[in-house]
């Protein structure tokens, strides 16, 4: 009797907010079941700086993101193939998602030339040339072996206007077909297309319509969080989630600020990634519900409290703000300690949102979160408008909510 075929991705919604577009689900992948909404820490080259895979397992992290462009350059596909893929190479037993390299068209624009064939990069390491086509991007990702792989898309800076935006959107759709044709491990890896179209609502709608004609297991929303206004940001996300199918996961690329995560979960997004929590740790900043603690500041030199008294990460269980103040940006271990906490903060925030959705208490969660996050400052207008669009009314008078009633803690 033959073994039952294991589907590379199934997605089941287990709870939906009765007010907003927020939902909680389980995305079953070959290497792990991933509860959504989920935040994916970014290990660009197959590692989170200063953090071991065992530490991520202790934080109950279920999925990481790595980058095809960088891994294709170093260590390269020959070494990854010999190692048996990135899971074995980096000793990570759970799920992986790989970005295709499209974002580097913006971040490394001075080193790239783009045409219909693909992107010709000049290596930042040795100045050699590398042609990244849709086919080559998929070839690298097939060797990497990530559970979810991304199409190569034509990415332009979010504030770009004019015909280049439409050109990039149509090219992205054409490149989906080339990626699909080149994909040789469809029974093991799920290819996500990427919705492009800049800040133009009609182009976003055209792109979604084109992608819906392709048989895929999930969708990404790209080309945001790159300098556009927050008003344009949330409206573009809202348009995309209105049009994307409900029965497949929706991934918003490159978004990781806490308030943005809460807003976009309310708008119907399931998956996120961002370098922010790991990068800010390297600058001595710890994430808390009210924002960030810059532990380089002298006021923390005698502060014997943990970063967050409600956090159960190993850093908060063991070390004080004072100790961290004296080593941040000086001792390499500080990067590890703060990264562990910051990743813990992100994952805990997602757990709290999943719980609130499952209890059908998500609007209350959003109200309480915004009060704690912004403190005495007014909640930004873009957030109140975004939440009103999905029927969540934020409290204008914070005195109306008693501090003792808050279920969301530091």
Automatic annotation (TrEMBL):
Keywords: Cytoplasm, Glycosyltransferase, Metal-binding, Transferase, tRNA processing, Zinc. Its main location: cytoplasm. Residues 20-373 form the tRNA-guanine(15) transglycosylase-like domain. Pfam families: TGT. One of its GO terms (cellular component) is cytosol. The keyword Glycosyltransferase applies. Zn(2+) binds at residues 311, 313, 316, 341. Residues 254-260, 278-282 are annotated as: RNA binding. The keyword Hydrolase does not apply. Substrate binds at residues 99-103, 153, 196, 223. GO terms for molecular function: metal ion binding; tRNA-guanosine(34) queuine transglycosylase activity. InterPro entries: TGT (IPR004803), TGT-like_sf (IPR036511), tRNA_ribo_trans-like (IPR002616). It comes from the Eukaryota. The active site is at 99 (proton acceptor), 273 (nucleophile). Its cofactor is Zn(2+). It is found in: Cytoplasm. HAMAP family: Q_tRNA_Tgt. Belongs to the queuine tRNA-ribosyltransferase family. PANTHER family: QUEUINE TRNA-RIBOSYLTRANSFERASE CATALYTIC SUBUNIT 1 (PTHR43530:SF1). This is Queuine tRNA-ribosyltransferase catalytic subunit 1.
């Amino acid at each position: 009797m033959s073994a039952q075929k294991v589907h590379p991705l199934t997605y089941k919604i287990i709870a939906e907010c009765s007010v907003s577009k927020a939902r909680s689900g389980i995305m079953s992948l070959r290497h792990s079941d991933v509860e959504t909404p989920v935040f994916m820490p970014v290990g660009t080259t197959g590692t989170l700086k200063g953090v071991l895979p065992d530490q991520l397992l202790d934080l109950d992290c279920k999925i990481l993101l790595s980058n095809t462009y960088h891994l294709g350059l170093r260590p390269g596909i020959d070494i990854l193939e010999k190692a048996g893929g990135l899971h074995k190479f980096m000793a990570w037993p759970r799920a992986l998602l790989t970005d295709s390299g499209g974002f580097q068209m913006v971040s490394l624009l001075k080193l790239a030339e783009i045409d219909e064939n693909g992107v010709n990069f000049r290596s930042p390491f040795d100045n050699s040339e590398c042609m990244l086509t849709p086919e080559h991007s998929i070839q690298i990702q097939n060797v990497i072996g990530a559970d979810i792989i991304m199409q190569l898309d034509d990415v332009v800076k979010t504030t770009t206007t004019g015909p280049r935006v439409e050109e990039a959107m149509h090219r992205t759709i054409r490149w989906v077909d080339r990626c699909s044709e080149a994909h040789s491990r469809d029974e093991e890896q799920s290819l996500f297309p990427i919705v492009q179209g800049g800040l133009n609502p009609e182009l976003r709608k055209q792109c979604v319509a084109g992608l819906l004609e392709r048989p895929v297991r999930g969708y990404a929303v790209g080309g945001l969080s790159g300098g556009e206004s927050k008003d344009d940001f949330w409206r573009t996300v809202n348009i995309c989630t209105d049009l994307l199918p409900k029965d497949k996961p929706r991934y918003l690329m490159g978004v990781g600020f806490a308030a943005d995560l809460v807003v976009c979960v309310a708008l119907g997004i399931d998956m996120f990634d961002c370098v922010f929590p790991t990068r800010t740790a390297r600058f001595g900043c710890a994430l808390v519900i009210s924002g960030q603690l810059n532990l380089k500041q002298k006021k923390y030199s005698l502060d014997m409290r943990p970063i967050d008294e409600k956090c159960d990460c190993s850093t908060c269980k063991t070390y004080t703000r004072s100790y961290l103040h004296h080593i941040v940006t000086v001792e390499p271990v500080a990067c590890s300690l703060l990264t562990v906490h910051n990743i813990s903060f992100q994952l805990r925030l997602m757990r709290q949102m999943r719980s609130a959705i499952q209890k059908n208490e998500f609007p209350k969660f959003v109200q309480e979160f915004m009060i704690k996050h912004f403190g005495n400052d007014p909640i930004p207008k873009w957030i109140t408008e975004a939440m009103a669009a999905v029927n969540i009314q934020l409290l204008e008078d914070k005195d109306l909510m008693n501090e003792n009633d808050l279920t969301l803690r530091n």
